From TrEMBL:
The keyword Coiled coil does not apply. One of its GO terms (biological process) is lipid catabolic process. Residues 29-258 form the Lipase domain. Keywords: Secreted. Belongs to the AB hydrolase superfamily. Lipase family. GO terms for cellular component: extracellular space. This is Lipase domain-containing protein. The keyword Cell membrane does not apply. GO terms for molecular function: lipase activity; serine hydrolase activity. It is found in: Secreted. InterPro entries: AB_hydrolase_fold, Lipase, Lipase_N, TAG_lipase.
């Protein structure tokens, strides 16, 4: 598929490098964890929706980062772009697999992160590796034209650990449980903090983007978002005992949401 690429931003170079033709210089430590960031519909690799994550990783400078570019397809009508999720994922997965094999990166170092429609693409990229990658993170997976049983939606088979952050459930995003650990900040619905006074259209857009803002903030500040385990029924009822301010008086497990989530620590109730 044309118009799809993976680019490597390097602070010391003026231009991003296309990994299909680029040989990493010796100063790049290929032993670092590799983050692969995938934007959503109506966006591109420089879109403000993913800038919080991109910027945080580059400033922290403790990981290697690849950024997917599929902007020409992402700017097609939404139903068209949605129907291209699988071929897009196969193309990104193929580029990624060839790159890591060529430069000697082990798949155990790879973490895929996607927002909105890119969250579902991230899941399917994980499936191109047989679900053996250690982690896929889905940030407010796109809701329109996806059903709970959609086979091409992100799911727990995408990686050894799949974590999901929902911030605009039932509208631009979805509230369907998709991963091994699904996080519902502010119950996963609009309006998210800072979005309350906007009109109905921008309110949902703002809330939809909060997932990337939360995740971006969690990279340098992993203790910013503490989540406590709750059942889906408790979340649906918006029970107060799901809130982290009760963690000192409860036996519920509480963990970091975002970059600091440790798969071995997460055991959520059903």
């Amino acid at each position: 598929m044309v118009n799809v690429s993976l680019l490597l931003p390097i602070r010391s170079l003026k231009e991003e490098q296309d990994v299909e033709s680029f040989e990493p210089p010796p100063e790049i430590d290929l032993r670092r964890q590799l983050k692969v960031l995938i934007h959503g519909w109506n966006a591109d690799r420089n879109h403000f929706s993913i800038l919080p994550i991109r910027t945080s990783y580059l400033v922290q400078d403790t990981h290697n980062l690849l950024v997917a570019e599929w902007g020409l397809i992402a700017n097609l009508l939404y139903p068209t772009a949605r129907n291209l999720v699988v071929p897009l994922s196969n193309r990104i997965g193929s580029i990624l697999q060839k790159f890591i094999e060529r430069v000697g990166i082990d798949p155990s170092q790879v973490h895929i992160i996607g927002h909105s429609l890119g969250a579902h693409i991230a899941g399917n990229v994980g499936r191109t590796f047989g679900g053996k990658l250690p982690r896929v993170t889905a940030l407010d997976p796109a809701g329109p034209l996806f059903e709970p049983g959609s086979e091409d939606a992100v799911g727990p088979d995408a990686a050894q650990f799949v974590d999901v952050i929902h911030t605009d459930g039932q509208t631009l995003g979805e509230d369907t449980v998709r991963g091994h650990a699904d996080f519902y900040p502010n119950y996963g619905l609009s309006s998210q903090p800072g979005c309350e006074t906007l009109d109905i259209v921008t309110l949902h857009g703002c809330s939809h983007l909060r997932a990337t803002g939360f995740y971006g903030e969690s990279i340098p500040l992993p203790d910013s978002f503490i989540a406590c385990a709750c059942s889906w029924e408790e979340i649906s009822r918006m029970d107060d005992n799901c809130l982290p301010d009760v963690r000192e008086t409860t036996s519920r497990e509480c963990v970091q949401m975002g970059e600091g989530t440790e798969p071995r620590l997460v055991v959520w109730p059903s």
